[in-house]
Each structure stands twice: as C-alpha cells, then as structure tokens.
C-alpha cells in the first residue's frame, strides 16, 4: 500500500486512476473548510470577510510556493478558460500582430475561448492534428511576427505528450510573442517552473493532480508585465482599492489581482489550499517518482514497455479490443475514463504496487498501445482555423 494513501479519502474498493480528472479529497479538507468558511459564516456573518479573504491569501501563498514564484503574481480564477480569455483580452494590440497560436491537440475549452477572441480582431491558428505538439521545430516554425500570443499545453490531456515549453518560450521571446502555458494536466505531478521556463503566464487548476477540488484555478503572470495588461472583465476586486466604492474612479490593482473580477468565491479555495499543501508536503518530485515506479511495475506485469520520457503522469492507451480492455478494467473495479478509443489511467500517491500489477495483468490479456509514443518523422505545414 502507498505510504500516503491514509492522507486521502479514496473512493471505491478498486484502483482509483483518475488523477488527471479529479484528484482524491484530502482527509484534512473537511475540517479546514469548516474552519475557513462555515464557522466564520455561522459566528460572524458579514464580518466573516476578514477570515475569508485570509483564505485567498493562503491560497496565493500555497500556489506561489508550489511554482517558485511570488504570491503577488498569482490570481485566483473561476475557470482556466476564463483566465485565458481575460488575459488575452487585456494585451496591448500591435498592428499586424493578430494571431493566437495553439495546437489542435489543445483542450477544447481553451480553443473555444480563443475562437471568441476573433471578435476582438484576433485570428486563431492551430498546429494541425497530424503535427506532433511535442516537436520543438513545429512550434519554432509557426512562431513569427504575426503572432500575438502562443498557448501550448504543458501536458496534452488526450495523449499525455509534453510540449517543449522552454523552446517555445525562447522562440516567443525572439519574436516578441506573449507566451501562456496551460499547466492544468501537469501541476502537481510534474515540476511547473514558470521563471525557469521563461514564459509570461501560466494557467493551472487544483482539481486534478493537486487534489483541490473543482472551482479553484489560478493565473500566474510575470510581475514585470502586470502593468502592461488591462483586462476587460473586471470587478471591484480588480481595483487597486476594492473598498473605495467610487464608480467614477477605476484603477487596476498593481499586481495579479487585476485579473480577479467581482466578489470572490471562498470555499473552493479553502479546499484547494488543503490539496496543494498536502501534495507539497509529499513533494511533486516524490509523486512523479512514485508514478514512474508504479508504471514500471505495470510494465513487468503486462510484459510491455511504455516510453514516458516526454509524457505527463497519465497513461493514454488504445488497443485492438478497446471495448474488451475497458470492460476488463471496469470489472476489476478500476476507476478510469475514456476519450473515444483512448483509455486514460493515472497513478498517484494513493495507488499501490498491487494496483499497478492488477492493471498490468489486464493489459497482458488486452495488449495496448501508448498514444503519443509514435512521433511523426516529418513536420507538417501550419494549419489555420477560420
């Protein structure tokens, strides 16, 4: 059994393999929610805001500690896609620079948000489906002076492929392009190091590997750039002084809080802080090492090998008999999910060697191929979305 399983409430009796979707609830979260949100509400009513805003401060501190950045560079967000929209809407426009660049393998919600920004004069361009988003040259060839912002996923949700973030950021700086990384599928299982990467912004969420529940995404923005960006979607907590209450005097907050908006939610960020602190106490490096250890045990049981050198924490698998594989996993009590013909399964800190061997035994009977392991040998031309 994993040494860390006792820290979490793990649903079901079989292996829970859905960290890429919803991480398990930390046992400490319920008491923390009561202390942070419910008790002040019951005992103080409206005067509980002092306590509640302290929850946001702790969330910013926990998230910044995980990323190795400053709390002032972190802003809570309602969703990852709304964070992206808000950030891009505030960029200063330059004549002739109107392209938003992403991959067709990006998470659909982000692409939908970028499509709507065409109403503000942007054009969306996507690296086509047959272009490997893990190939640095594909991004380098696509980034030029027409591009306003590039938005790679750190880890792709349908394949587990890692984008070459450092190479993308280097190309972006060379051409004066704003770089934004979607780290939703990586933060909590892979190192997310914005400063070392050299990117301008990072979007993340607490619901997956950070075990923080839904409703608590975050935006990191490089502090040197904050004053240059004026988001459209603002509210009183985007104000330099939220309690000024002068409707004729809006002044953007001097730090990342300018992306905050209206009256904030509190409960999700209490839960998320507990999740982040729990994972941080274990260590992201330790979580990744355990993930790879369990995959190695799975490989022995399955008599196969998976290439994890450019992969996140999720095994994205297909098989000749995908229905048989899914049925066998379900019959064994495994909690996993499917995206079409792709079975996704993730090992986290609560999973055990027995879990890995169980899954590996099933894969021996239903041989599976790893999605994203076969890279195209030749680069394809850039595709454009209308």
TrEMBL record:
GO molecular function, one term: transaminase activity
Occurrences of domain Aminotransferase class V (ranges): 90-299
Entry-linked Pfam families: Aminotran_5
Signal peptide range: none
InterPro entries: Aminotrans_V_dom, PyrdxlP-dep_Trfase, PyrdxlP-dep_Trfase_major, PyrdxlP-dep_Trfase_small
Keywords: Aminotransferase, Pyridoxal phosphate, Transferase
Top-level taxon of the source organism: Bacteria
PANTHER family in alphabetical order: CYSTEINE DESULFURASE, ISOPENICILLIN N EPIMERASE
Protein name: Aminotransferase class V-fold PLP-dependent enzyme
Organism from which the protein derives: Sphingomonas colocasiae
């Amino acid at each position: 059994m994993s040494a860390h399983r006792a820290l979490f409430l793990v649903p079901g009796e079989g292996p829970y393999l859905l960290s890429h979707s919803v991480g398990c609830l930390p046992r400490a979260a319920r008491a923390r929610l009561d202390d942070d949100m419910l008790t002040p509400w019951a005992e103080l009513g409206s005067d509980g805001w002092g306590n509640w805003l302290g929850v946001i401060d702790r969330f910013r501190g926990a998230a910044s500690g995980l990323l190795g950045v400053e709390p002032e560079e972190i802003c809570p967000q309602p969703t990852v896609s709304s964070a992206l929209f808000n950030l891009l809407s505030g960029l200063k426009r330059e004549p002739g620079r109107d392209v938003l660049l992403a991959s067709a393998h990006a998470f659909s919600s982000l692409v939908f948000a970028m499509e709507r920004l065409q109403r503000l004069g942007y054009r969306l361009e996507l690296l086509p489906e047959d272009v490997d988003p893990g190939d640095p040259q594909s991004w380098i060839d696509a980034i030029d002076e027409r591009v306003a912002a590039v938005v790679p996923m750190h880890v792709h949700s349908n394949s587990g492929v890692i984008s070459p973030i450092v190479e993308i950021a280097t190309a972006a700086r060379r051409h004066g392009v704003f770089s934004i990384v979607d780290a939703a599928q990586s933060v909590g299982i892979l190192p997310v190091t914005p400063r070392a990467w050299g990117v301008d912004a990072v979007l993340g969420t607490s619901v997956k590997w950070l075990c923080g529940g839904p409703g608590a995404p975050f935006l990191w923005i490089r502090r040197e750039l904050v004053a240059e960006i004026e988001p459209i979607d603002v509210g009183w907590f985007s104000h330099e002084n939220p309690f000024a209450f002068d409707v004729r005097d809006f002044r953007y907050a001097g730090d990342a809080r300018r992306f905050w908006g209206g009256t904030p939610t509190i409960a999700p960020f209490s839960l998320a802080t507990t999740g982040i602190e729990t994972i941080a106490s274990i260590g992201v490096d330790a979580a990744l090492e355990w993930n790879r250890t369990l995959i190695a045990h799975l490989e022995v049981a399955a008599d196969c090998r998976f290439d994890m050198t450019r992969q996140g924490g999720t095994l994205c698998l297909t098989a000749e008999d995908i229905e048989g594989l899914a049925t066998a996993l379900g019959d064994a009590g495994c909690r996993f999910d499917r995206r079409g013909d792709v079975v996704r399964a993730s090992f986290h800190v609560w999973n055990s060697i027995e879990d890995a061997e169980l899954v590996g035994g099933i894969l021996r009977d239903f041989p599976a191929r790893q999605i994203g392991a076969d890279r195209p040998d030749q680069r394809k031309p850039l595709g454009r979305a209308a």
